[in-house]
């Protein structure tokens, strides 16, 4: 058995619960990507893409014949979305680093109009996707799956643009994501979502401090 086959089939038994190793490994890559994003490192994007590919197979449990035959279409779909938006972010940060600024991204606040659009987009996206995900057979409550998908899209795009508020969107995603994952039986992901929630608050503080230092230096120049 080659390493890829082992990773796809390997399971961890905890009490009566069976957890796929690729769920753990995929989330570990996600944490590493979040750390890289907080530190504004370009490698955060490709590392995240690897985790997204693994988690895509996890959240389509009924399709891939996993021990947990539950499809979370929003969770699975957002992995594809992550890959697409991550490629965009990867290119954006690389261009920024190669420019006269010489940094991957310079954190900044989004304009008030952008904040309003982000909020409306989160609500509208949830309302539009809920009946679609329900028709496709997503796990209840479907609105939570739609909320997570929409929020993840907006947060990842915000990270690519360098908006500090993207960390707060992740908090909103995690608050809904933890109960949904527990009810669907994805316990490893639920535990890691709790960690993500705390980590996103730390990331928000770090980016705010970087932003203030940069503004102070520009003001003194």
UniProtKB/TrEMBL annotation:
Ribonucleoprotein: is it a keyword of this entry?
no
Where is this chain's protein located in or outside the cell?
A: Cell membrane
Sorted alphabetically, the keyword list is: Cell membrane, Membrane, Transmembrane, Transmembrane helix, Transport
Record's Pfam families?
NMN_transporter
Any single GO molecular-function term of the entry would be:
nicotinamide riboside transmembrane transporter activity
Q: Report whether Plastid shows up as a keyword of the record.
A: no
UniProt-listed InterPro entries: NMN_transpt_PnuC
Membrane-crossing segments per the record: 42-64, 76-93, 114-136, 142-160, 167-187, 193-210
Which family does the record assign? Answer: Belongs to the nicotinamide ribonucleoside (NR) uptake permease (TC 4.B.1) family.
Q: What is this protein called?
A: Nicotinamide riboside transporter PnuC
Which species is this UniProt entry from?
Answer: Cryobacterium serini
